[in-house]
Predict the 3D structure of the following.
Amino acid sequence: MPMLELRNIEVSYGPVSVAKGISFKIEKGAMVTILGANGAGKTTILRTISGLIEPEKGKVLFEDQEIQGLEPEEIVKRGISQVPEGREVFPDLSVHKNLMMGAFIRRDQKEIGKDIQRIFGYFPVLHQRKDQLAYTLSGGEQQMLVIGRALASRPKLLLLDEPSLGLAPFMVKELFGIIKRINAEDGTTILLVEQNARMALSIAQHGYILEVGRIVMDDTTERLRENEDVQEFYLGMREEGVRGARRWKKKKQWR
Amino acid sequence: MFIQQVINGLAMGCIYGLVALGFVLIYKATEIINFGQGDLMMIGAFLAFTCVNFLHLPFLLSLLIALVLMGFLGKIIDRFVLRPLVGEPAFAMVMATIAIGILLRSLGGMIWGYDTYKFSAGITDVPVRIGSWAVSSVNLWIMAITVLLIIVLYFFFNKTKAGVSMEAASQNQLAAYLMGIGVKKVFSNIWGISAMVAAVAGILLTPIQFLNYNMGFIGLKAFPAAVLGGFGSIPGAIVGGIIIGISESLAGIYLPRGFKEVFAWVILILVLMIRPEGLFGIHQKKRV
């Protein structure tokens, strides 16, 4: 039984259809990535899972129960935590209070304290800055804060929306290292949505490729990395033809 | 004379500040400007007045009843007027709050009549000597209760989980949803708290002004106070209120007749021209 399953999800914003029948599964303990260009529908999928959007058709099953259409707070309580795109911190609260808000749905004070210590273990810089207001942090630190905050609810499934967006390359590397540890050490299942395909394919075990509202490929990341189309269109590798020119007219095989 | 006027202005300013605080709490959380805040203040004062004068209850009990009822009234307004308007353009909300204000004012008139009443809110006016000045005890009470209320609100919004979550929801609604904070519940509670603050302001106002269905117009003067403080800042609302109160009171004696009434508006226009973000303007919210 997969931990999360989407069955034929369709979402549209007004007349614009964004998700045209999306289905996929995530097994417990796995790290899965969804790759796709701008406007492919990645964020829409995450928002549908976390209850910010109600799909027109289809089902979202979490631990075998339908959760589509529930209020976001109910979905957080069931153990899904989303890190939204773009470092959505609480700007005028201290780092520590931001983390406490992550644990808003929990009542077990003692365990919350322990979990926050564990989060400081992953992100030591947050510990140094725990009394600073969140808006004074750098972009990378804010990204760490929102990931830490999402972990404070002790989620079974963590949804990450473009954690690398706008970060310096060394920061991206560090962040992905920590994401990998969260998956391996805590056993938290992770769904990672990324544009940085190279990084995402190197840390996840399974990948889906999304193009304009449809899933067009579904394979292990190892095989995706080998795939010609993925190499060309997502990893930016050039294949030199006999004449030494790039094959501009090449079509993706899934079209 | 000067000191006297400053103290009178300070007391009046505290009341402006409390009404402005009501504006600010609602604006910060919901981005709605509640033009009915002054009328909520009137209803609050009349509720306490009814409990004391008609039901012959002790003052503190009456205060408590008025606060509880006002809390409910705030929540009811949120639930039945503003929640159905979520997602509508901002002017729809503004119109709705103006309508609430007029409705409450007419209701007040229908229930309590159009006369002016005297209600001293359990505070007797005795002159208190501090050094060489005589200060009205009413003014001291107003200041003390305002300070107390601010301390309580500060503690609530900074130290309690419920309060911090309201603060969080006002700062970033999307993130609040994702933390499992019930944003609708937060809005409802904010309306409740705001109506209660209005009631306190109304009750404090009664010893210095007569009770009348029209007293909500004072709320309009709290508007410049909120703008001066930087709409969206809690300390700003109180400081803005005090500045308006004192300058109005001084304008009353040092400037020609009529200036007292318009002085708040002169300040409003000056602030909007010179420093539109107010004294405690909000910083850049987000890094991109």
Remarks:
- Chain B has one domain: 2-274.
- Residues 26 and 53 of chain B are 32 Å apart (CA to CA).
